[in-house]
Amino acid sequence: MAKERKRPHIETEIVHGIHSSHTTSMDLVPPIHMTSTFKYRNADHSAGVFAGTEEGYTYTRISNPTVDLLQEKVALLEGGEAAIATASGMSAIASVSLSLAKPDDNFISCNSIYGGTFALFNKHLRNFRIEPRFLSPSSCCSKRQILDLIDDNTRFLYIETPANPTLDVIDIAMWKSIAKKHGLPLIVDNTFATPYLQKPLSLGADIVIHSATKYLSGHGDIIGGVIVGTKKMMDHIKKEYIEHFGPVISPFNAWLVLRGIKTLALRMEKHSDNALKIARWLNGHPKVEKVYYPGLESHPCHEIAKRQMRKFGGMLSFEIKGGVKEGKKVMNNVKTCILAVSLGDCETLIQHPSSMTHSTYTAKERESAGITDGLVRISVGIEAADDIIMDLENALS
Ligand code: LCS
């Protein structure tokens, strides 16, 4: 007989999890509250809702029933107390950064991260006199080198794991031990892994960030983001940034993310199994110089990945012999794989980080982050792995 568990398995929470408390119509699927404002019975009612003494909504920039459902859902899956859904992954990162750091503060981050995040940190936050202190991939594993960068003005530690596009795996527990020692919040971008494969909060992280554009929605049809953490921290971020800078998600997009999440477990299983098969095949290909996939035993962080991830996800990168010239030939000759940025969609997407997603770096910055000109990144989809392999085989030859 199955043992009774306190909580259902994550596959069950992904499908069920939360129930709409905002409708009495018994819909299986929640309605979309496509409204910017909300009505009141009378002036006492409106005053009560605005004062917070009565339940109710004021304005969709502040909160909305459909958006609330998405927030509850992602908080549940990540094991956080509360969440904030945002207009994009970038607005989630900007909101967290700007609500935690002020002029003359600094923060620590690895330099192999999504190109948009790098530009936000390296250019725009510097314009606010907030200084990013970057570590190269090898330094991200060194406690000593991380500690050396922390001073009295450090406000948070930021990691992305697995990292875009190099697939470096960062040891969340090790970073947490440093964050704890200095009383700093640890922020983890969990976009590549999703809560199905990795739960940073259970490893000690304080805030989890997602680009919901990717695996959470899973169908390449929206832009969105989510921030998860304690209720106190989420209230702080809402008051300090979200409510008056206004980077909120549309209720329609929130509903699409909720719909996408229902198949998250199935998709992540298939993405991961396909990616492992393709990574192993590429690893043995005579025209391939190097494959970066945390599921390969040869990956330098394979043991850390095994410890903190359930499977290894759908993202991989590889270098082709002959560098960028040969890489471009492959991207020009694929047929099943689609030449496009973004990731986490059902379709396999292939792209060239140094001229596309990571063109926000200078050549020198890319070199320091380990993003070579010959690197090709694949977001492995949920097609039959053999068809993707055949497509790559044809393109490589
Ligand atoms: N975090 C990670 C790890 C990402 O890969 C991205 C976008 C973001 C945050 C930003 O999310 P967005 O605002 O786009 O929802 N990554 C992209 C990529 O690799 N190709 O196109 C977008």
Draw up the topology in text.
Blueprint: H1 10-15, H2 43-51, H3 65-78, E1 82-86, H4 89-100, E2 106-110, H5 115-127, E3 131-135, H6 143-149, E4 154-160, H7 172-181, E5 186-189, H8 194-197, E6 207-211, E7 225-229, H9 231-245, H10 251-261, H11 264-283, E8 288-292, H12 302-308, E9 315-320, H13 323-333, E10 338-339, E11 349-351, H14 363-369, E12 375-379, H15 385-396
Parallel strand pairs: 2-3, 2-4, 4-5, 5-6, 10-11
Antiparallel strand pairs: 1-7, 6-7, 8-9, 9-12, 11-12
Ligand LCS is lined by residues 88-90, 114, 116-117, 160, 164, 189, 191, 211, 213, 223, 225, 341-343, 357.
Task: Walk me through this protein's architecture.
- The protein has helices spanning 10-15, 43-51, 65-78, 89-100, 115-127, 143-149, 172-181, 194-197, 231-245, 251-261, 264-283, 302-308, 323-333, 363-369, 385-396, and strands spanning 82-86, 106-110, 131-135, 154-160, 186-189, 207-211, 225-229, 288-292, 315-320, 338-339, 349-351, 375-379.
- It is α/β, with parallel strands linked by helices and 397 residues long.
- The chain has two domains: 20-261, Type I PLP-dependent aspartate aminotransferase-like (Major domain) (Aspartate Aminotransferase, domain 2), CATH 3.40.640; 264-396, Aspartate Aminotransferase, domain 1.
- The strands form two sheets. It has a seven-stranded mixed β-sheet with strand order 1-7-6-5-4-2-3, with helices on both faces. Strands 8-9-12-11-10 form a five-stranded mixed β-sheet.
- α5 links the parallel β2 (106-110) and β3.
- α3 packs parallel to α10.
- The chain is globular, with a radius of gyration of 21 Å.
- The site of ligand LCS has 18 residues, from α4 and α5.
